[in-house]
């Protein structure tokens, strides 16, 4: 056994992190367009006052406004991906290019045309587009009017947008994803759901309401896809993580179970079609009563996805020891795992965790899987001769590909494809920095926004080309 013949190798980006052209050809503002860059971006996203200020009067530098100007340079970039032999290219449609305010009477034809050309260009280079319908970029107008996904008003608006793009691109796009990292709504509601909510950890009623509305919208998107593009496949997308009990202490194991449920309850609903019992008990315990509609249950049941896609960067640990529990291991906190190294941004690197996770997810759902994000955010140095020797990135990816290979070949996991995150350098979602680079292609731009935007191939570029050419045999 080895990787299936039609295994989908490729790379991934998101509109708001690469396109730029934030008001070009009729595009409206999205939530991403009012978030500043810099290490404090996570704090800014959690600060409702700062967010309100940004929305009313955006001042300062916003990295998404120009990003890497993919909007004007996509032909050059796709040609580079084609040169690496990509079979698939994951990107998102910026909802605010199609409906600038989210609820406009008419769609923006110029925005629709842009994606027509983009998907045609992908096909020209032999790449299947894999399209996320909503990747951290809901129209800002919907935040102002409805506080984003906290309101059910967004459900029909999203469905209208989805039906339009499915109809328009049904002959060009065969793989769709509903919401990027839908489980991040629980702790980053502005980014993930366009909702300003003070202390999301304390305001459970409100964040779970956002999540419920997105779940219903996701299921409606699945139903629309079956109707409009019956040959296409549509998946969900979660931030997946391997969660270890910090020790074999039973309390640690129990905490791991609870953390796991918080991480996976949304995909449980999207793959099984109903809320799990443990979640109903959780709602009861915390006095959460969701505003639902009588038809929601049927919609969730009928709108289960064809496959599960996920991002994987790190693993985490769960400890019942209060001192350890707050020591911080990576983005999702929890104690540092003493057996693992960390990236420059403190994300703990765990390739074997990916094999374990693939097995865990396949056992849990028995549905095809797709890794749509994986990669190392690192600072790169351009040498005097222009070369960029990113051996550390190759090492990271090599070990993760080996783990994935073992899961497919030795454990029988049904995996459809692998798209590395940020196949070209782009704006970081959590920090807005350019210097946190993931690409095989270097973009000349720094954190202050200076640079020529010229593209160049890193060492990892030819390495990945070999990986794809050998269908994962040569890593
Ligand atoms: C995921 C997001 C991406 C992406 C990636 C890397 O959470 O889906 O949009 O950016 O993480 O994270 P970062 O950009 O913060 O390094």
Brief descriptors of the model:
alpha/beta; TIM Barrel; globular; 475 residues; binds 6-O-phosphono-beta-D-galactopyranose
The H-level CATH homologous superfamily, spelled out, is Glycosidases
Tell me the span between the first and last alpha carbons. 17 Å
Helix content: 40-55%
- Say what the CATH topology is: TIM Barrel
Rounded mean pLDDT is 96
Biggest beta sheet summary: 8 strands, parallel, barrel
Short characterization:
With 475 residues, the chain is an alpha/beta fold. The chain has 17 helices and twelve strands. It has an eight-stranded parallel β-barrel, surrounded by four helices.
Walk me through what this model shows:
The strands form 3 sheets. An 8-stranded parallel β-barrel has the order 1-2-3-4-5-7-9-10, surrounded by 4 helices. By secondary structure, it is α/β, with parallel strands linked by helices. Helix 16 links the parallel strand 9 and strand 10. Helix 15 runs parallel beside helix 16. Helix content is 41%, strand content 13%. The protein has 17 helices and 12 strands. The mean pLDDT is 96. The protein has a single domain, classed as Glycosidases (TIM Barrel, Alpha-Beta Barrel). The chain binds 6-O-phosphono-beta-D-galactopyranose. The site of 6-O-phosphono-beta-D-galactopyranose (BGP) has 15 residues, from loops.
């Amino acid at each position: 056994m080895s990787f299936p013949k039609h295994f989908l190798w490729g790379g991934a980006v998101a509109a708001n992190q690469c396109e730029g052209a934030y008001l070009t050809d009729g595009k409206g503002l999205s939530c991403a367009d009012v978030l500043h860059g810099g290490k404090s971006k996570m704090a800014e996203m959690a600060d409702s006052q700062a967010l309100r200020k940004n929305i009313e009067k955006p001042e300062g530098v916003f990295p998404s406004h120009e990003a890497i100007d993919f909007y004007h340079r996509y032909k050059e970039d796709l040609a580079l991906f084609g040169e690496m032999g990509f079979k698939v290219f994951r990107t998102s449609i910026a909802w605010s290019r199609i409906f600038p305010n989210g609820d406009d009477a008419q769609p923006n034809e110029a925005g629709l045309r842009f994606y027509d050309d983009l998907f045609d260009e992908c096909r020209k280079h032999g790449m299947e587009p894999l399209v996320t319908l909503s990747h951290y970029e809901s129209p800002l107008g919907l935040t102002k009017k409805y506080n984003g996904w906290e309101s059910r008003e967004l459900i029909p608006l999203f469905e209208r947008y989805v039906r339009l793009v499915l109809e328009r691109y049904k002959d060009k796009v065969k793989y769709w994803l509903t919401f990027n990292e839908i489980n991040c709504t629980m702790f980053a509601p502005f980014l993930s759901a366009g909702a300003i909510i003070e202390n999301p950890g304390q305001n459970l009623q409100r964040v779970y309401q956002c999540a419920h509305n997105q779940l219903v919208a996701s299921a409606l998107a699945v139903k629309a896809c079956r109707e409009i593009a019956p040959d296409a496949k549509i998946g969900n997308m979660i931030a997946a993580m391997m969660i270890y009990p910090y020790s074999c202490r039973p309390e640690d194991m129990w905490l791991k179970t609870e953390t796991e449920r918080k991480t996976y309850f949304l995909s449980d609903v999207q793959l099984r079609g109903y809320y799990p019992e443990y979640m109903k008990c959780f709602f009861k315990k915390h006095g959460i009563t969701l505003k639902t509609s009588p038809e929601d249950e049927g919609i969730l049941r009928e709108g289960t996805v064809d496959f599960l896609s996920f991002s994987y960067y790190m693993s985490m640990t769960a400890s019942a020891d209060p001192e350890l529990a707050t020591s911080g291991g990576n983005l999702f906190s929890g104690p540092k795992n003493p057996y693992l190294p960390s990236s420059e941004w403190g994300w703990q690197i765990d390739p074997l965790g990916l094999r374990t996770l693939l097995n865990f997810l396949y056992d849990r759902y028995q549905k095809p899987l797709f890794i749509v994000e994986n990669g190392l955010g690192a600072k790169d140095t351009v040498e005097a001769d222009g070369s960029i020797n990113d051996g550390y990135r190759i090492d990271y990816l090599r070990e993760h590909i080996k783990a994935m290979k073992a899961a497919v070949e030795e454990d029988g996991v049904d995996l459809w494809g692998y798209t590395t995150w940020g196949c070209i350098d782009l704006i970081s979602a959590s920090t807005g920095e350019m210097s946190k680079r993931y690409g095989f292609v270097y973009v000349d731009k720094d954190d202050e926004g200076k640079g020529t935007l010229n593209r160049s191939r890193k060492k990892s570029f030819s390495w990945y080309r070999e990986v794809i050419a050998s269908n994962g045999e040569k890593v």
